[in-house]
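pls design
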């Protein structure tokens, strides 16, 4: 794994696949969603090539973007409402940033669902930024792309921690913390890869809404919620120590921390019936541990398991789809 400084200097052109698509990572959060917004550390890992983008000149009057898997197609000429307007604004911001004035069309190949806690909006912002940078003849660095993607995330989510755009940009396994002075990102390395399943609840989770609800709860009872965030921060610190060993990670210990993190998220009120159902089925199928990943209220569940086929089968019986990821660090 490259050091963070080296990764920051890496250029957009190194994310172009042989077939001309420009990629960015999705992400899973192993520890610390929500508490990371309040300054606690989090641990997250990138999902490689989760979103890829290709740009071409358009013969239409205005620029446009189409994302087949999400069934979304938006032109800057359309009069739209809701999340489609956010996408238009993100596209406008990136085009303006790279001074792309002629109409272009962006085709998006998305391997992850959106509104599922897998960092799809940040991956989209990073992949579009890299692709448009290259189209405009500017081989931007990750540092520049990350800053622009953070601005896009602010448009989409209001008060993002910056974790999603950083992971979308850098990939790998990171400890992330938002400090008053900026962001502290530390690359973590694992002696041996870890296997997880990502299960999809089939219910969309909306980051801006969930983060705003948690904020209201925090404003009403800061003592209780600060204590909860502190506990989640402590779990992250303990997990970092477990992951840092130079032998194989102790999965029983790691699993206990994952389950305790889920208990905190439950207390925060961001779990839901579908997530709990997945956790129960997965545990019966032999998973060591599990927690929601991302903002919750639906979305995805991260399951630690060495028996992934059994767990997948248990989940499939209730029509929950899942996919495997290996975190190498
Ligand atoms: O649901 P996602 O993939 O956008 O992840 C959100 C993670 C939070 O910690 C809840 C918010 C943030 O900005 O870090």
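designed seq:
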């Amino acid at each position: 794994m490259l050091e963070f400084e080296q990764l920051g200097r890496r250029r957009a052109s190194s994310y172009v696949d042989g077939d001309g698509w420009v990629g960015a990572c999705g992400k899973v959060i192993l520890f610390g969603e929500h508490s990371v917004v309040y300054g606690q550390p989090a641990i997250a890992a990138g999902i490689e090539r989760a979103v890829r983008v290709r740009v071409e000149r358009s013969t239409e009057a205005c620029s446009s973007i189409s994302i087949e898997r999400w069934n979304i197609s938006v032109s800057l000429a359309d009069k739209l409402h809701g999340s489609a307007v956010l996408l238009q604004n993100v596209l406008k911001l990136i085009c303006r940033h790279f001074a792309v004035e002629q109409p272009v069309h962006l085709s998006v190949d998305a391997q992850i669902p959106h509104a599922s806690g897998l960092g799809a909006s940040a991956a989209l912002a990073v992949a579009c930024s890299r692709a448009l940078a290259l189209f405009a003849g500017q081989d931007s660095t990750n540092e520049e792309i990350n800053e622009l993607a953070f601005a896009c995330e602010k448009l989409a989510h209001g008060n993002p921690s910056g974790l999603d755009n950083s992971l979308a940009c850098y990939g790998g396994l990171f400890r992330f913390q938002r400090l008053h002075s900026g962001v502290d990102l530390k690359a973590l390395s694992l002696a041996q890869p870890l296997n997880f399943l990502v299960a999809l609840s089939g219910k969309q989770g909306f980051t801006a809404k969930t983060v705003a609800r948690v904020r209201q709860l925090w404003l009403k009872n800061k003592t209780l919620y600060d204590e909860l965030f502190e506990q989640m921060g402590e779990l992250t610190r303990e997990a970092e120590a477990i992951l840092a060993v130079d032998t194989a990670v102790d999965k029983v210990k790691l699993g206990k921390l994952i389950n305790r993190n889920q208990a905190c998220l439950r207390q925060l009120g961001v779990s839901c019936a579908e997530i709990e159902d997945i956790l129960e089925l997965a545990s019966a199928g032999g998973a060591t541990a599990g927690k929601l990943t991302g903002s919750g209220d639906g979305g995805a569940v991260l399951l630690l398991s060495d028996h992934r086929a059994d767990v997948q089968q248990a989940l499939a019986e209730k029509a929950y789809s899942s996919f495997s990821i290996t975190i190498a660090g």
